[in-house]
Write a structure and sequence with these properties.
It is a single chain. The chain is of the alpha/beta class and about 270 residues long. The strands form three sheets. The chain has a six-stranded mixed beta sheet, sandwiched between helices. A four-stranded antiparallel beta sheet has the order 2-1-4-5, with helices on one face. Strands 6-7 form a two-stranded antiparallel ribbon. Helix 3 runs parallel beside helix 5, helix 4 packs across helix 5 and helix 5 packs parallel to helix 6.
Length: about 270
């Protein structure tokens, strides 16, 4: 397995409570079971890369974690706090009001396939606006943080540009900086390079690798298997809404235990 010499093993669940804990998560869309009893723990500083064929439930899982979709079964906790629900005095689960759910979501950063930048705002303002409005960060402090983050993703010189003046790769790097500006506990990436031209993929993956080196806790849904080999602490293979197999990259890619994973890797390697 190719590894980055800067990285060290992430602390496992035995060392500390996991940052994220999902148990028995289920989700149904129009009678189709998109997720079926998914269990997942993510430790402090761990990079978990989720792979699998299209329609396997990967994106649905991270959208449920970010509460963009409401789960139909199971539970998800962030630092021990139940997401999306509360338990009343009778022990019955009640959905949280929208405002409380939004507050929980602010503790996670989400980077989508599409960039979702505000076209009428400058790059810098795209980054600093949310901390001011949602977190009450003083504007000068938020602007300085935005400047630092744009430098970090290699776009300090584009602070006064507008999204339409950037390439797709640059826009996605701004989207990452915008998510980081909220100082998230957990970063979620939903196929962040799938909408990019091939020559732009590397610049986005490079930023993600730097976050991994800094021990940012991350869940990454991607088809970039080489990225998974090099960066992941753990690779999770999903199919038909379930976690079929998971483990270190050298195990998952080098010694797949299930026929479903073997078939997926063979098809992927055979693709043009």
């Amino acid at each position: 397995m190719a590894t980055d010499p800067i990285r060290t093993p992430a602390a496992g669940p035995a060392d500390a409570p996991p940052v994220l804990r999902a148990r028995g998560v289920g989700k149904v869309f129009g009678g189709v079971q998109a997720l079926q009893g998914v269990d997942l723990d993510v430790a402090e500083g761990e990079v978990v890369v989720v792979i699998g064929p299209s329609g396997s439930g990967k994106s649905t899982l991270v959208r449920c974690i970010d509460q963009l979709e409401q789960i139909d079964a199971g539970s998800i906790e962030l630092d021990g706090e139940l997401l999306g629900f509360r338990v009343d005095r009778g022990g019955v689960l009640r959905r949280l009001p929208t405002r409380r759910t939004a507050a929980q979501r602010r503790r996670m950063g989400m980077v989508f396939q599409s960039f979702n930048l505000f076209a009428h705002l400058t790059v810098a303002r795209n980054v600093w606006e949310a901390p001011v409005r949602a977190l009450g960060v003083p504007a000068p402090e938020a602007r300085e943080r935005a400047r630092e983050l744009l430098e970090r993703v290699g776009l300090g010189h584009k602070a006064d540009a507008y999204p339409s003046q950037l390439s797709g790769g640059q826009q996605q790097r701004v989207a990452i900086a915008r998510a980081m500006a909220m100082r998230p506990r957990l970063m979620l990436f939903d196929e962040p390079t799938s909408a990019l031209d091939p020559e732009l993929v590397g610049e986005v993956l490079g930023v993600m690798k730097s976050l991994a080196q800094e021990r940012m806790t991350m869940i990454v849904v991607t088809h970039e298997l080489q990225f998974a080999r090099e960066v992941a602490d753990r690779v999770v293979f999903m199919d038909a809404g379930t976690v079929v197999e998971q483990g270190p990259p050298d195990q998952v890619f080098g010694r797949p235990a299930t026929e479903r994973l073997q078939t997926f890797l063979h098809r992927f390697s055979a693709a043009p």
